[in-house]
Amino acid sequence: MSLLLVGISHRSAPLSLLDQLAAANADSTTLRNEIASSPFVAENMVISTCNRIEVVADVARFHGAVNDIAQRLAKHSGIAFDELTRHLYVHFEERAVHHTLTMTSGLDSMIVGEQQILGQVRTALREAQDAGTAGRALNELGQTALRVGKRVHTETGIDRHGASVVSLALDEATAVLGTLNDKRALVVGSGAMSSLALQTLANGNLAEVVVAGRSVESTQRVAASTGATPITMDDLPAALGEADVVISVTGAAGVVIGADDVAATIEQRNGRPLVVIDLALPHDTDPAIAEIDGVTRIDLARLAEVPAASASQADLDAAAGIIDDEVRLFLAEQAALRVEPIVVSLRAKADVVLEAELNRLRLRHPELSEEAIAAVENTLRRTVSTLLHTPTVRMKQFAADPDGQRYAEALHALFDLDPEAVTSLSAPGPAPVEGFDSVFDVMPGPTPAEPEGR
Length: 454
Prior knowledge:
The protein has helices at residues 15-24, 28-36, 62-77, 81-85, 94-104, 116-131, 136-155, 158-161, 165-177, 192-202, 216-226, 236-242, 259-263, 266-269, 300-303, 313-364, 370-398, 404-415, 419-426, 436-439; strands spanning 2-9, 41-49, 52-59, 89-92, 184-188, 208-213, 229-232, 245-248, 274-278, 295-299. With 454 residues, it is α/β, with parallel strands linked by helices. A 6-stranded parallel β-sheet has the order 7-6-5-8-9-10, with helices on both faces. It starts with a strand and ends in a 15-residue tail after the last helix.
């Protein structure tokens, strides 16, 4: 089995395509289950955020798994296979581990250093565990990624630059309005991102914060936790006229706030400017809103161009160093686990030889007491343990070596070990992936860009 990652994000595709993909993949459960039906995929989890969908899997066959995952992504999204695959990126084994740790740390995010991705990866892993599609391989990778992500945020200054999408958008709104003090804000949606927006607004000196949502219960819940005023979607037109800042992030399949809805409030506004922040994929607001006099529309594409969306080079280098070290450690630990059958087989072989010699000693020297036999046995076991200690340590070190198969074959020949145990270690896998089109000719496409600052 080998680790594989197939994904599409803001780094490999236009937001218009991500918009379409997000609309179709609001429920990642179906996609995860469809991928699990592939005969080449043993484990998988789906990481779906506002600007990426990535499938992390433990696979038996590289090409078969890539094809099956891509086919299911295309079918599930309704995007033509040829169109979708032009924007997909594939990482295998070491590169899959490196990308997963980089992404979870926030270095591959639209706003570099943001922490929301940690929660999104945690959710994806938990859902895969609950569904039974995450086993040992993905559990170990997922837990490692979460630990490393926390370490990067703790040990580097990336958080100083890694503002959330919400806070960065509000900074842009402040640049338009001059200040948010005594302004009225309207949040549309009652999910996790809406809750984050409400918490961020609660730290300001706004005159009023209103939240509108389709679910009365969830709207009242997020409002109560932040001191906002809950309203229904029926009250949205009137609330638009009162608001100075609108943050919409519903995750709905269609437009929630149209240009006509905003235009209808112009007279009511009496010249007051309006900032409409759209953080949803697919987008919640009509892009034509930006053409209305006195109205500024801020979406994810605009936020990606803001200088504050990038961290300093020093912090990026520090984070990259941590990730490189952690990738090496993870791969070494996995190699040690793979060599464990050889270690067990070698020790079992030694035990068989030791027991045979003890039985021969009992038969040849029946006059020896059990105490004497026990003393001999203890001496022999200590001797065997001492002799096997260094080979055992070396085997775990050699397991990560590119010539690991050669060492496994040598051990088999020297000690006549269990062939199945050796095969499980030395069976060759697919060749390392250097570029997409070098390994999957039906998917010509660019190798995804490394995170900024790498």
